[in-house]
C-alpha cells in the first residue's frame, strides 16, 4: 500500500464527537477520471475510550466549498462499536466513483 501524505485526510486526530477530517483534499472540478476504484483505509491507532456503548461511522463527503457548508455524503460505513475499534484495526472501503465536487474529506459520526 502506498500512502501519500497529501492524500491523508487525518493523522493522529482525536475524534471525541462527530467531525470532519483535519485535512481536505482539493481535487479540482470534474470527476477524478478513475477507471478503477481507489480505497480509503482507516487505521485505528488508539483504542476508543468513550463511556457507554459508543459507535463510530466513517464516511466520505464532497463539496464545492472548502468549508463544507453544503457537504454531500458519498459513502457512510456501518456503525462500528467501540469494542471493535482496537489498536491496529483497519477499515477499508472503496472511494466511490463520480466524486464531481472540488473538495473531499472524511467525516466521523460518533453516537
In whole angstroms, the N-to-C terminal distance is 31 Å
Order of helices and strands: EEEEEEEE
Fraction of residues in H or I helices: under 10%
Characterize the biggest β-sheet.
6 strands, antiparallel
User: Which band does the percent of strand residues land in?
Assistant: 35-45%
Please identify the structural class as seen in this structure. Answer: mainly beta
Tell me the number of strands: 8
- Uncertain segments: none
Radius of gyration: 14 Å
Helical run tally: 0
Q: Averaged pLDDT, please?
A: 85
Estimate the global geometry from the Cα principal axes.
globular
Description:
By secondary structure, this protein is mainly β. The chain has strands spanning about 20, 25, 40-45, 55-65, 70-75, 80, 90-95, 105-110. The strands form 2 sheets. Strands 1, 2, 4, 5, 6 and 8 form a 6-stranded antiparallel β-sheet that branches. A two-stranded antiparallel ribbon has the order 3-7. It is globular and about 40 Å long. The mean pLDDT is about 85.
Question: Quick summary of this structure?
Answer:
This protein is an all-beta fold and 111 residues long.
Amino acid at each position: 500500500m502506498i500512502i501519500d501524505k497529501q492524500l491523508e485526510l487525518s493523522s493522529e486526530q482525536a475524534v471525541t464527537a462527530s467531525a470532519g477530517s483535519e485535512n481536505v483534499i482539493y481535487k479540482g472540478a470534474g470527476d477524478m477520471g478513475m477507471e478503477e476504484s481507489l480505497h480509503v483505509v482507516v487505521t485505528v491507532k488508539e483504542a476508543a475510550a468513550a463511556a457507554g456503548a459508543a459507535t463510530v461511522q466513517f464516511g466520505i463527503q464532497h463539496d464545492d466549498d472548502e468549508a463544507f457548508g453544503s457537504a454531500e455524503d458519498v459513502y457512510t460505513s456501518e456503525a462500528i462499536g467501540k469494542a471493535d475499534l482496537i489498536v491496529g484495526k483497519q477499515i477499508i472501503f472503496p472511494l466511490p466513483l463520480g466524486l464531481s465536487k472540488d473538495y473531499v474529506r472524511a467525516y466521523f459520526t460518533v453516537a
